[in-house]
Amino acid sequence: MDHLLVLLLLSSGLQAEGKHNSTESVRLVGGDSRCAGSLELKHQGDWKQVSDTHWNLKKAAVACKELDCGSAVSVGWREESSDRSVWKIKYDCVQSGSALRECARSDSSSTIVNLNCSESVRLVNGTSLCSGRLEVKTNQSPQRWSSVCEADFDQQDAEVVCRELGCGAPSVLQGVHYGEVEVPMWTKELQCGGHESALLDCRSSGSDINVTCSPGKVVGLTCSEPVRLVGGDSRCAGIVELKHLDWRPVINYDITPETAAATCKELDCGSAVSVDGKEESSYRDMWRVSSDCVQSGTVLRDCVTPWHFHIALNLTCSDLFQPNISVSSSMDGDSEAQQQRFQVFRGSTFNISCSIQPQYPGGSFQLTFTSSNSAHNYTQPAVNHSAHFLFPAAEPVHHGKYSCVYHVSVLSHNFSSESHLLSLAVSDLLLPPNISLDGDSEAQQQGFRVFRGSTFNISCFIQPQYPGGSFQLTFTSSNSAHNYTMPAVNHSAHFLFPAAEPAHQGIYSCVYHVSVLSHNFSSESHLLSLTIIDPTPFIIRAVVLPLTLLLVNAALYLYCKVLTRLLFGPLTEMKHAVC
Questions:
Q1: Which is the most buried residue in 176, 312, 360, 413, by most CB within 10 A?
Q2: What helix, strand, coil percent values describe the chain, rounded to 5?
């Protein structure tokens, strides 16, 4: 059934990401559009064709990007009648992010590169050329790439996009955030039925409307990249065939362990066991995998080049499924998935489970843990194709990445398969309480001082999170330790000491205890240091010093009075005072 598909043009204009200012130095000629044809490059003032028999879609994607076209759809080469002056592109230079013209060197060849880029659709920032955020360039906005609102996109639309890009069927369709605020956009409504060969072949309403993509999510799409093994004893053994526009065998030339491992991984068949070649009766069209292109996380389709050969790659994988890893906690709702990241509360019991689809009996699971400063392995036998690793109390040392590795022996061969990584964060359920001192005290750099015999009060309080609970005031000194407990009233408690004594000198802290969902939790404040001092020296200073000043002033007065009388006599005392 037809429905509306809304294409969103950000008002600021999304230009080609990482685009080099090089539309005048790269072009495709002789094709059906500006995004298809023979690749030509202008370098050092000369336009020349580009030659290379090892171009793959990864290399082609660089050219498509510089041309401000969409995704790379196909790459090939043709033979001219004679050699000519051409440009060859250094692949390691392109990988570093340089523009094509910066990676060109002059050569002579008769082999010319042909490229086909999509004109109006591309997937960006994905793990492969068949995954990423969907962007579209419409005829009404030829200089802008627009994003597609998730709310107006479904499986039928995804099938059209994957078909246009030369990828397999849609496998993952989800929304991705482009920002926290709603961005006003001009849109063009398209009515897609799902059978079209290109997205812009959809019928158009012919009118622009002004809307926003709420709640700020645009389409993220992953298309499948079909690989299969044929003619073997199981689904994980046989001749490797890859579909890129059409199904072809992969040649066995220059196959590295990384390439074999990547193939088994794409097939969900564990690890590679053996690699050899099977000779065909005649030369035929095949795919060649560029070994320097295959890296961790790279899919084979991005790294193939069309080739004419007669020996196909015969691969045997361990036939193990990928195990699953999951986490659960003793508290309902205390583990939260955050994009492959889970959170458990400190002190709670949590369990990490490893499981795998039934294939072989027995085996074992190894739970691997890595953090910034440590690594551990835990092993348990597989019981009913699963194992459970229990952690009685979550602590900060449990913060890190976990994975499950399944090990099994089949026909005297040992095989293993690893799950995806699970990132675990441990956080505090309770905020730390505060501790303070009231009364006749004096704050010092090393703590508080209280006069002996005076009244003082230590208060414990915490920000409101849960009702009830209690406070425990802990006291430690060089020769004793005590605990005092009071219920929390309005999230606080006050511990009164009527008369400070030397026995009260030491270190205090507040510990808040509360029960949440039948589980007990606690949180401790910082430490408070208290010193008891004798008030006598302060009393002496307060009394003796003023009295001394008074006596000195009186003595000076009498001295001046006597001296004046001796010098001038009693009649002139008032007139000739010396002091």
A1: 312
A2: 15, 50, 35
Assigned token pair, 70 = 């969409």
pLDDT tens digits, one per residue of 513-554: 988 767 777 888 999 999 998 876 665 666 667 777 888 777
The tokens 């590795």 sit on which residue? 405
The CATH code of the domain that includes 211 is 3.10.250.10
Listed range (38-42, 111-115, 198-202, 469-473) with the worst mean pLDDT: 198-202
Of the candidates 265, 256, 300, which has an alpha carbon nearest to the alpha carbon of residue 58?
300
Q: Are 311 and 66 contacting, i.e. CB atoms less than 8 angstroms apart?
A: no
Instruction: Kindly report the pTM of this predicted structure.
Output: 0.55
Q: Specify whether 106 is located in the same domain as 43.
A: yes
CATH code of the domain in which 401 resides: 2.60.40.10
Q: Quick one: pLDDT at residue 177?
A: 56
Alpha carbon 213 to chain centroid, angstroms: 24
When the pLDDT of each residue in the chain is averaged and rounded to a whole number, the result is 81
The angle at the Cα of 321, spanning 317 to 327, to the nearest 5 degrees, equals: 145
Residue located via tokens 């053996």: 274
Q: Which residue type does 312 have?
A: A
Locate 16 and state its tokens.
């080609």
Check the CA dihedral 11-16-17-18 and report its sign: negative
List the domain range (segments joined by +) for residue 382: 324-427
